[in-house]
Amino acid sequence: MDLTVAGRRSALALTPRARRMLRFAGPAVVLFVAAVTRLAGLGHPPELVYDEATYVRDAWTTWRIGTEATWPDGSSWDFARGASDLYDADAPRFAAHPPLGKWLIGLGMVLAGPASSFGWRIVVAIAGILLVGLTMLVAHRLTRSLLIATIAGGLLAITGDAIVLSRIAILDGLLAFLVLLGVWFVLIDGDRQRGRPAALWRPWLLAAGLAFGAATAVKWSGVWFLAAFGIYAVVVGALALRRAGERRWALRGLLGQGAVSFLTMVPAALLVYAASWAGWFTARTAYDRTPGANVLADWLRYQAEMLAFGVSDDIPHLYQADAITWPLLLRPTAFWFIPTYRGEQGCASEICGSEIIPLPNPLVWYASIAAVIYLLVRLVLRRERPVAAVLLGVAAGWVPWLFFTGRTVFQYYTIVCEPFLVIALAMALGDVLARGAASRRRRTVGRWLVGGFLVLVCAASVYFWPLWEGQQIDFGVLQGHWWLPGWK
């Protein structure tokens, strides 16, 4: 026996605890990268960016008086410099979205102060970090592969729309996190149904209802995921009955389990949604509140006004992008742009520019769209439940917007689809890796292809990072990042 070789093997042997730690090193690194990309320089720029002018100030008055209030024209600049008491508490303002997102944004302001740009954004940033971790949990539950889960989380950690919408205090990042949380709970419930079909008490489905209700209390588009994954839960329950040998599995599943799913999820969602309006119900003055009138009737009238506005909002915008164009990534939204000239704020060129744009990593985006098409084919051929769940998540975040052709919508709304898109891409890359293939050569080629692609993705993220953080760069260099005419 070769004692040298034996000794070397002994030295390389790992304890079970060390193997477990090494196994989770990948997800830990991904979360670290997500934290750095979302927290580093979070206070920049120290002014209200894009719709922060609405949501941050609404968040502050929601915490102060329970509801949104009117601010003087041009007060955004003053607010960012500490003038947080300029609002008129006796002039409540119509808000296009429910209050929960503003309650959450305001939490950071309560802790750090209304003049802290870090405070405006910290809760959204934490939600963005958690979204990456949750993406890995969902991917692992669907595929049982830690490698695929790590790839999915890593892709989300370094793509631009997920980064920017974690660094700017608007509602969509919060919506994405709560939606994916609800999906995760539905998937756990589905796994439990395999062993206990026709269960009446389904706590994970109840948790899903609460999460989807919270998502809807941030933005109404959360209700599409409640409907889509509510139907998914019913179908999964029916199929569990079929596997258990139930003769009338379809009837019992669609009617019996359908009723259980509805009564478990929908009342919970309604409860959370209504609870988010507690400030409106208790405020001294609130929009659409009539003294002495039926407060419930006033609230329902307000909901009807919000619905009418949400459906008919067709105010033209420079960066609007019809939903049919979203897969092509033709018109991302510029949140912030500041030109500077030589000698101003350290500009060493004739002209410099600072821009913040929630542009996805183009390689990740277009590869994810291709992966969705691939999974559609795979679903038709194999009818795999994990694939169906991923595609359903993409559809719930995109397809409903196709019916609002006259409404002003934006590319960054796709952030709710992004976790499902990167999971789809990670699943496709898992097939490229061909880990179960008999041919060693095929496995080697797969590793090189996937490894090379991931290196290019990382390089692209480094290249686009200045546009995601708002760094000042030479204007010519900035123009080099505008790969398509609609990106400028």
What is the gist of this entry?
By secondary structure, the chain is mainly α. 63% of the residues lie in helices and 5% in strands.
Topology of helices and strands:
Elements lengths: L2 H10 L3 H8 L1 H15 L12 H14 L3 E2 L5 H5 L7 E5 L7 H13 L4 H27 L2 H12 L2 H5 L7 H24 L7 H14 L5 H22 L5 H27 L2 H5 L12 H18 L23 E6 L9 E6 L5 H21 L2 H14 L19 H16 L6 H30 L2 E3 H6 L8
Antiparallel strand pairs: 1-2, 3-4, 4-5
Helix pairs in contact: 3-7, 3-8, 4-6, 6-7, 7-8, 7-10, 7-18, 8-18, 10-11, 10-12, 11-12, 11-13, 12-13, 12-17, 16-17, 16-18, 17-18, 18-19
What is the distance, rounded to the nearest whole angstrom, between the alpha carbons of the first and last residues?
68 Å
| Derived structural class | mainly alpha
Quaternary status of these chains? single chain
Mean pLDDT value: 92
* Neighbour order of strands in the largest sheet: 3-4-5
Order of helices and strands: HHHHEHEHHHHHHHHHHEEHHHHEH
Extended strand count: 5
Question: Beta-strand level of the residues, as a percent range?
Answer: under 5%
State the shape: globular
Enumerate how many helices there are, as a single number: 20
Q: Mind describing the biggest β-sheet?
A: 3 strands, antiparallel
Give start-end ranges of low-pLDDT stretches: 1-12
**Computed CA radius of gyration, to the nearest angstrom:** 24 Å
Helix % is: 55-70%
